[in-house]
Amino acid sequence: MLPESLGGLAAMAGLLGLCVGSFLNVVIHRLPKIMEQEWQAQCAELHGESTSTAAHLSLAKPRSRCPVCGHHITALENIPVLSYLLLKGKCSGCGTSISARYPIIEILTGLLSAYTAWHFGPTLQAAGALLLVWSLIALAAIDFDTQLLPDAITLPLLWLGLVFNLANTYVDLPAAVVGTMAGYLALWTVFWLFKLATGKEGMGYGDFKLLAALGAWLGWQMLPTIILLSSVVGAIVGITLIIVARRGRNIPIPFGPYLAAAGGIALFWGPQLTRSYLGLIA
After folding, report:
1. 65 DSSP β-pair partners
2. 197-221, pLDDT tens digit by residue?
3. How far apart are CA 109 and CA 21, in angstroms?
4. What is residue 172's DSSP assignment?
5. 97 pairs with which residues across the strands?
């Protein structure tokens, strides 16, 4: 495909990514609250208590609003990145500062979407990779905030990887199925060995499911690269937080963001990294 055509495709994907990033901000903020709401309802049901009659939170309702003054966000105030700049990062109702995370997520999603389209071109691989990248961004941010990796994202992501690989989109189906099983069992084994040795839980079940999902997309061959990358990045960030930010060693650090970052790197450059690594050790 001509570079000009790829550039146009990347630009369109980037604009789409900005809009998707705005939606991901809603998912990142609301999905953990929706999960908490569901858990509370289940606990009340188990205890024979009546559940709250208040309006249930969803990704679509109620409309987004300022948590301080309740000002409803208008359509003009919800344009990705641009609205944040025009509002100078403050609520138009009360002047409360708006977190810089919102435009950061939008810009990150836009840039990665543009690169994905440029990297894969107008192919089925590009369509699937966009879904994978968007999901990984949401999972990384949610896990960073709450140390949760919602099944509502990880499990559909796992099945989507298998569906795409029915057509050998990234790897053949046997490699994807083995990757799913090996991804889950790899961290499950580490979890139990650590727990038996220390009596503590070193990671959550969501990490198993996320690595299983990455195995479903990229195959079992890519799992060592993903695990190595996520461990190295996690160790560097963890040590930095302890030394620079004086974060206590007993404060848990979510592993999901590092798995997500490693999965994204493996999606784009996994084979090259694997060949380079094997060349070094050879």
Report:
1. 72
2. 888 877 888 999 999 999 999 999 9
3. 5
4. -
5. 90
SS3 assignment, position 137: helix
**Both tokens assigned to 156:** 């559909």
Radius of gyration in angstroms for the set of CA atoms belonging to the chain, rounded to a whole number: 21
Type of residue found at 126: A
Helix residue ranges, H only, 54-172: 82-86, 101-120, 124-146, 151-164
Contact 105, 141 (CB under 8 A): yes
Q: Which pTM value belongs to this model?
A: 0.91
Q: Count of residues for the chain?
A: 282
Tell me the one-letter amino acid at 100: A
Residue 115: CB atoms within 10 A of its CB come to 17
Adjacent-strand bridge partners of 199 = none
Distances 266 to 1, 173, 273, 277 between C-alpha atoms, Å: 24, 18, 8, 13
13 against 77, higher pLDDT:
13
194 contacts 202 by C-beta, under 8 angstroms: yes
Q: How far are the Cα atoms of 121, 132, 135, 176 from residue 173, in angstroms, in the given order?
A: 22, 17, 21, 5
Q: Which amino acid is at 8?
A: G
Q: Summarize pLDDT for 20-74 with one digit per residue, the tens.
A: 999 999 999 999 999 988 888 888 788 777 666 456 788 878 888 877 787 788 8
Residue of 272, 198, 194, 189 lying closest to 229 (CA atoms): 272
Q: What is the mean pLDDT of residues 123-152?
A: 96
Instruction: Identify whether the C-beta of residue 212 lies closer than 8 Å to the C-beta of residue 158.
Output: yes
